[in-house]
Amino acid sequence: MEEMEEELKCPVCGSFYREPIILPCSHNLCQACARNILVQTPESESPQSRRASGSGVSDYDYLDLDKMSLYSEADSGYGSYGGFASAPTTPCQKSPNGVRVFPPAMPPPATHLSPALAPVPRNSCITCPQCHRSLILDDRGLRGFPKNRVLEGVIDRYQQSKAAALKCQLCEKAPKEATVMCEQCDVFYCDPCRLRCHPPRGPLAKHRLVPPAQGRVSRRLSPRKVSTCTDHELENHSMYCVQCKMPVCYQCLEEGKHSSHEVKALGAMWKLHKSQLSQALNGLSDRAKEAKEFLVQLRNMVQQIQENSVEFEACLVAQCDALIDALNRRKAQLLARVNKEHEHKLKVVRDQISHCTVKLRQTTGLMEYCLEVIKENDPSGFLQISDALIRRVHLTEDQWGKGTLTPRMTTDFDLSLDNSPLLQSIHQLDFVQVKASSPVPATPILQLEECCTHNNSATLSWKQPPLSTVPADGYILELDDGNGGQFREVYVGKETMCTVDGLHFNSTYNARVKAFNKTGVSPYSKTLVLQTSEDTDSEEQTLPFPVPSERLPLRRMSPFSSTLNLQPSFPGRSYFDFRSSPHQLSLHSSLQSLNAPVAWFAFDPGSAHSDIILSNDNLTVTCSSYDDRVVLGKTGFSKGVHYWELTVDRYDNHPDPAFGVARMDVMKDVMLGKDDKAWAMYVDNNRSWFMHNNSHTNRTEGGIAKGATIGVLLDLNRKNLTFFINDEQQGPIAFDNVEGLFFPAVSLNRNVQVTLHTGLPVPDFYSSRASIA
């Protein structure tokens, strides 16, 4: 009820309405306040003069606000009319509700009549203080406005509900507070008196007991006043004019302006409008409920903002402290270098001082000795030693002349600290990005009809939900390692289809995808379970719903594969079976195993050095440079036994190409084996060496020429690497303890051209030796 109080107060005086009247704009005013804000208008704008001129106007003509009212966008109140001799010049005042009002144009005449009956100035105008619409009063003045009886009743009930509590009427001494009222007995009772004097049995059981406040309202309310017609004050309202939307009396229908209008029964329209108001209130009630929930959310946001602010400040302080600590550590390191340089300079200078001191002492001794020899008068004795002394003097002089008297160290420190990049970085230190308020994308949907497996490759396709309105900047595809391990990202980009090559044979993988934009990432899609083939040497069976040829999928190599990127021409037959559950989708591929699996692959132009030249469907390779350049195969191996060969098509000027395996990030501009990412055999026309991390081992006689065949056998079950030349093993096992993901690799220059041969079985002698072992 307290929240309703503002609806019950006059916008002019700020108090509860007293004898409220209804303006044509549907706003209310106290009758006394309406008199106070009347303004007299020029004679030419009066209703009588308008009627005399023949213009058809109603009793309440709204005036042109631009011409007649001082109200404008710059003035939030309403004012008297300007440009007329009768317009008041007294400054406006403000009501308690903040509405600007003007004093009357002339003091009201002394009268003993009520405000409703007191005469108003002729040609008066009133402006609504809420919507600022102005209208001219007719001869009836304020009596022409209907009284708001409903509003009076609401104010009466509200004021009574705020009054003091009612007392029991049957307590003999100190009356207690009443708890109920009997409508039939018209008596207020406290609980003890109700049980004693008004027991709930017999005839009293049928009496209706109500709360005291409700009983007080029903008891004190006077009989409802019957509303009378404003045009015919002796007639009561009996009908409702649909066109004018107002109650009318019988006389209005007979001779008034409503005679030709559509009218309906007052009671029926009363019930209809009550029903419409109730329905409108239901919608407003829902909005009010939402507003309350929104306010609770805002208050929670205030608390969350304070907590996030404290957390963010702590994080910022920690980050700045970490930068300061790092700067202090670097400062200590730089000071240590300065101290080291300082000690080095002092040592060099002190050593030179010591050396020069010794040499000067020797030189001074030689000089003194020579002077004493010169003093001797024995010619023969002098001549016996003079030649030697002369040579010693010249030799000593030459020793002093070879930069001996030049300082070996300067006093300046040849260290210059360039702190400008760091200062610039500090000045540019700022928050990277403020979190956007837009939502994250919807969860992508994996399209089973376009997902398939082929040998050890899998093609996955996905899309955004049909009703999604939030755009995605890209997608992140993740696979596990085939052994139920952690998921890893295998693709990040805008495409909605991707082929992952090089999965383990006969392995089960889980795949999932999520979308992202500047705001964040979406939840993961359902997990797709897929099974790779058991064997690569079988016929191929495609899905009944193949991937459309016009949608060429992206190809990505798996970081945990056993073999990567099988050739599409490799024969194989796959049978697919779809299974679904609430949390997983399943794509199964099973193959009929005939022989041991072998891998078909070619060289990878995407990862090769720019000087590499590929031909013959990327199976033949040479180089345009005289320096060694590296090229890798498309297939990577992490388990199993794999064998491939390379034939020498051209061999000029006895170069030394290298063959072996390497990691994906091997150096591409040096010979294979120069870094720790490659294991290789390099060979010339006479002999070969094994090389890893620039370490050369196991020199073996026997080289290559045009037409020679080099075989590479990678046994990841035994973790070793062996080389062959012309079907003969070249040296011992080249490398042991090789683990991880390896790609076939070759390094060569422009004097060599080789061709790759894949899909080869393991040599028989090695298979038999492995079975014996």
TrEMBL record:
Residues annotated as domain RING-type: 10-50
Keyword Lipid metabolism among record annotations: no
GO cellular component: cytoskeleton; dendrite; nucleus; synaptic vesicle
InterPro entries, per database record: B30.2/SPRY, B30.2/SPRY_sf, Bbox_C, ConA-like_dom_sf, COS_domain, E3_ligase_FN3/SPRY, FN3_dom, FN3_sf
GO MF: ubiquitin protein ligase activity; zinc ion binding
Residues covered by the COS domain: 374-432
Domain Fibronectin type-III: residue ranges: 440-535
Pfam families xrefs: ANCHR-like_BBOX, fn3, SPRY, zf-B_box, zf-RING_UBOX
PROSITE patterns: B302_SPRY, COS, FN3, ZF_BBOX, ZF_RING_1, ZF_RING_2
Enzyme Commission number(s): 2.3.2.27
This protein's UniProt keywords: Antiviral defense, Autophagy, Cell projection, Coiled coil, Cytoplasm, Cytoplasmic vesicle, Cytoskeleton, Immunity, Innate immunity, Metal-binding, Nucleus, Phosphoprotein, Repeat, Synapse, Transferase, Ubl conjugation, Ubl conjugation pathway, Zinc, Zinc-finger
Parts forming coiled coils: 288-344
Family of this protein: Belongs to the TRIM/RBCC family.
Protein name: E3 ubiquitin-protein ligase TRIM9
